[in-house]
TrEMBL record:
<protein>
    <recommendedName>
        <fullName>Malate dehydrogenase</fullName>
        <ecNumber>1.1.1.37</ecNumber>
    </recommendedName>
</protein>
<dbReference type="InterPro" id="IPR015955">
    <property type="entry name" value="Lactate_DH/Glyco_Ohase_4_C"/>
</dbReference>
<feature type="binding site">
    <location>
        <position position="92"/>
    </location>
    <ligand>
        <name>substrate</name>
    </ligand>
</feature>
<feature type="domain" description="Lactate/malate dehydrogenase C-terminal">
    <location>
        <begin position="156"/>
        <end position="322"/>
    </location>
</feature>
<keyword id="KW-0560">Oxidoreductase</keyword>
<feature type="binding site">
    <location>
        <position position="162"/>
    </location>
    <ligand>
        <name>substrate</name>
    </ligand>
</feature>
<dbReference type="InterPro" id="IPR010945">
    <property type="entry name" value="Malate_DH_type2"/>
</dbReference>
<dbReference type="InterPro" id="IPR001252">
    <property type="entry name" value="Malate_DH_AS"/>
</dbReference>
<dbReference type="GO" id="GO:0030060">
    <property type="term" value="F:L-malate dehydrogenase (NAD+) activity"/>
</dbReference>
<dbReference type="InterPro" id="IPR036291">
    <property type="entry name" value="NAD(P)-bd_dom_sf"/>
</dbReference>
<keyword id="KW-0520">NAD</keyword>
<dbReference type="InterPro" id="IPR001236">
    <property type="entry name" value="Lactate/malate_DH_N"/>
</dbReference>
<dbReference type="Pfam" id="PF00056">
    <property type="entry name" value="Ldh_1_N"/>
</dbReference>
<feature type="binding site">
    <location>
        <position position="112"/>
    </location>
    <ligand>
        <name>NAD(+)</name>
    </ligand>
</feature>
<dbReference type="InterPro" id="IPR022383">
    <property type="entry name" value="Lactate/malate_DH_C"/>
</dbReference>
<dbReference type="InterPro" id="IPR001557">
    <property type="entry name" value="L-lactate/malate_DH"/>
</dbReference>
<dbReference type="GO" id="GO:0006099">
    <property type="term" value="P:tricarboxylic acid cycle"/>
</dbReference>
């Protein structure tokens, strides 16, 4: 048996974590031969609830679950962590403007970045889920000067999976028959779900579906799926978000299947003309614990406009919190 790895999770008593932690403990994220130590982090007022979650985890008697530790601060919770899943964030309250939301979360994620820098394992891999995820990832990474920005990602795999699931239902295929979906940009309604590279059973997806459906139904449906789920359930996506976190970390650590493309929010290196210095969802492949942007994809005029729109939104978000970034 391997040595256990340390996985820190913030927001560990929240809705997403209530699915996520059980999947991790069952070996779905790091593999069925990898024991895990869960370092669970919550706000002080939620510690009692967190103790309940820890009891349930214990009661599952997972063979791969080595230890559970509970923390009411990130400085303790991130200690020696190999993986950090930043799920908790301040939700938008009544009367709160988006700029207020960006600012309060900027403070939270700045502290988390500093704590990762000072206490986590040098090779820690960080996945930011808490919204606004892309900009929170930027703030955390900028506050961790001793870590590489490539150690930080944000979650756009949920959008990727949504696009795949919706296309599968529409075309009559199954999700495993579909490859090459790309989510570009922000985890927000400006994201661009691109099917130009997508295939269904190896054949171009766009030759098998109606272009009007793609433009007028598919794209807005993927962009607004989160809102549709809130309208229907009265609660936001939780199990599907947990599944996406497991998928994104699994692929980052253990690699994508040969030929498979997935979407990940990562720091832009200027690829596809996207301004450097923002976290942007790109098509990637993963191998040996690293991701690489898939290059050479042709961007037509229709796609370019959508890339520009989502890039602009991220630049606007960055402008709101720019004064809080360390120089
Ligand atoms: P919940 O409100 O159920 O849980 C969040 C938990 O985080 C709470 O228990 C809270 O006490 C805790 N928390 C808040 N600030 C914290 C901090 N500074 N340190 C530690 N814990 C903290 O929300 P949930 O449904 O679990 O969603 C969590 C976050 O994921 C939200 O920000 C949500 O907007 C975001 N999402 C992001 C998605 C993505 O694809 N990037 C999709 C799903 C989800 O909407």
């Amino acid at each position: 048996m391997r040595r256990p790895v340390r996985i820190a999770v913030t927001g560990a008593a929240g809705a997403i974590s209530y699915s996520l932690l059980f999947k991790i403990a069952a070996g779905e994220m790091m593999g069925k031969d990898q024991p895990v130590i869960l370092q669970l982090i919550e706000l002080p007022h939620a510690m009692e609830s967190l103790r309940g979650v820890a009891m349930e985890l214990e009661d599952c008697a997972y063979p791969l679950l080595h230890t559970i530790t509970l923390h009411d601060n990130v400085e303790d919770g991130f200690k020696s962590a190999h993986y950090a899943l930043l799920v908790g964030a301040r939700p938008r309250g009544p009367g709160m403007e988006r700029s207020d939301l960006l600012e309060v979360n900027a403070e939270i994620f700045a502290r988390q970045g500093r704590a990762l820098n000072d206490f986590a394992n040098r090779d820690v891999k960080v996945l930011v889920t808490g919204n606004p995820a892309n900009t929170n990832a930027l703030i955390a990474s900028r506050n961790a000067p001793n870590l590489s920005p490539s150690q930080f990602t944000c979650l756009t795999r949920l959008d990727h999976n949504r696009a795949k699931g919706i296309l599968a239902s529409h075309s009559g295929a199954t999700a495993r028959d579909i490859n090459g979906i790309i989510i570009w940009g922000n985890h927000s309604p400006t994201q661009y779900p691109d099917l130009h590279q997508a295939t269904i059973l190896g054949e171009p997806a766009l030759s098998q579906i109606d272009m009007d459906w793609y433009r007028d139904v598919f794209i807005p449906q993927v962009q607004q799926r989160g809102g549709a789920i809130i309208d229907a359930r009265g609660l936001s996506s939780a199990a599907s978000a947990a599944q996406a976190i497991v998928n994104q970390m699994h692929d980052w650590v253990l690699g994508t299947d040969p030929g498979e493309i997935v979407s990940m929010g990562i720091l832009s290196d200027g690829s596809y003309g996207i301004e450097k210095g923002i976290f942007f969802s790109f098509p990637v492949r993963c191998n040996y614990g690293r991701y690489q942007i898939v290059r050479g994809i042709e961007i037509n005029e229709f796609s370019q406009q959508r890339l520009n729109d989502t890039e602009q939104e991220l630049l606007d978000e960055k402008a709101v919190i720019e004064h809080l970034l360390p120089k």
